[in-house]
């Protein structure tokens, strides 16, 4: 017979600990993405403000203008986070608009010609320009499809992204001139690094999942699968 002074059964204690652990992990899954997203945006905004605002003349600093408009004491500290981002966006739009004109293009060509004559600077500038054009340029150049390839050996499969049909000397000299595909094989969990491989077209299996879903699969190390078709179910056949 149990008395009020008897300890709780071990099973109940373990159940409570399991419930607390499960609730904590569930809350962490909910809070972590939101908190990290807010922290990242807040940090990036602060970094841009810290870079842009010192370039603005003191008389036109946003806090000075707001103090004058509200009639506050000049000693009052006002921290308006995000103004630097607005200034940066407006400045970037103006530079892009000017760069599309004849004068802007001429100035850019003249400036790049000067850079090309500088030994060290031209290497740094060309590399940064190529990365910027790849990431930010408005063009149709992007990965076409996600695919499966056997890599690094037969029997081991990896996710890849089809860039283009292989062209030029690589296409002529490789695979006896037969069609090949340029495939980027990303690393996990950082998909920005990887390997550029050239596969015969017959060895590349195109997937139905989108490039974004395939990227999530790579970044999550196989933990997040896209909500695609259930390949374990037999295909639906039409009755005669």
Describe the model.
The protein is an alpha+beta fold. Among the domains are: 12-100, no CATH class; 145-219, no CATH class. 49% of the residues lie in helices and 13% in strands. It contains seven helices and five strands, in the order αααααββαβββα. It has helices at residues 10-52, 62-70, 83-99, 102-116, 119-136, 168-173, 211-219, and strands at residues 145-150, 157-165, 180-186, 194-200, 205-206. Strands 4-3-2-1-5 form a five-stranded antiparallel beta sheet, covered by helices on one side. A hairpin with a 6-residue loop joins strand 1 (145-150) and strand 2. The N and C termini lie far apart (70 Å).
What does the largest sheet look like? 5 strands, antiparallel
Q: Please bin the fraction of helical residues.
A: 40-55%
Number of strands: 5
Ranges where pLDDT stays below 50 over 5 or more residues in a row are 234-240
Question: How confident is the prediction overall: mean pLDDT?
Answer: 79
Number of helices: 7
Note the gap between the termini: 70 Å
Order of the strands making up the biggest sheet: 4-3-2-1-5
By secondary-structure content and strand pairing, the structural class works out as alpha+beta
CA radius of gyration? 29 Å
| Share of β-strand residues | 5-15%
Inertia-based shape: flat
Can you write the helix and strand succession as a string? HHHHHEEHEEEH
